[in-house]
Amino acid sequence: MSSKSVELTAMAPVARASMFSKRIDLAGAAGFIALMAVLPLVFGGNYLIGVLTVSVIYGIWAVTWDFMSGLTGRENFGHSLFIGVGAYTAGFLNTTFGFNGWWSIPASMVLAAVAAVLIGLPTLRLKGPYFALAMLSGAVIMQRLMLIFWEQTGGEEGINGLEPLIRSQLGFYYFALATLVAITVLLLWIARSHWGMILRAIRGDEATCQAAGINVTFYKIASLVISAAFAGAGGAMYAHYQLQVSPQLFAVVTSITIITMVYVGGMASIYGPVGGAILLVLLTELLREFGEWRLMIYSITLILILFFLPNGLVAPVWRRVRAAIGGQQP
Hints:
By secondary structure, the protein is an all-alpha fold. The chain is 77% helix and 1% strand. The longest helix is centred in the N-terminal third of the chain and has 41 residues, at 3-43.
């Protein structure tokens, strides 16, 4: 037997294990989608559908944050900037210029991508925590501008009177869920491609990547643009679901909430933040019956998760489940 035949024979079990893992992932994804699709039908009620819709939109924002910041290691504290740009684009187009709401989503993606280029070109060259602080400043500045130019933006009250994209609340939920699935699949595919390998290499050692001739700045800006575009789409969807836009979308707390969801889900996993977002939104609603104790219980729960599970909850748990099913080490 030739050495090549021996090598192929040795690699066969690894290939079979990889294919089996992919099948388990597909089965898990199908089960998750089926569960999310069935939940509003089983329990019913507009309140639950509303909570699930918000959780799905937060899932879009979380997965887009993780694509750029999780893979490259350049944490973005101003992700709300792109969400707000998308939401206000939808608000102005629909209420001021009279465009159909469906034009809001592509327009929001374009303007959020433009914002990413404008802020990314100077800031992504910064070292250390300065990129995160620059992004944070950008979101804060935009929030202040929405208040300063109150005659055009509506100030604290924002823009009201947006038309719903889909008049059926259940129909909008399924649209949001389908959008989340499509964005997650696309970003997961990119993350597992050659592009994703380069982004992870940048996170590991940016200087070495530059020495190897990789245009690090291009890949970082490109990943920020992709992240911003889909976050802007999520902002437009949120605006048309709430039927109004306010400066609060630019707030620092919005970005911090999204980052927390990503950490709970599992950074750099892409699919983990989706679970983290849905889990935390549902947890917030479940704790409402505790009244004034709700915030304390929620905070303690987050602290325990982040302290005892520094790699997150959702993605590591799924890896263990997949390994147990496949009879492998996690």
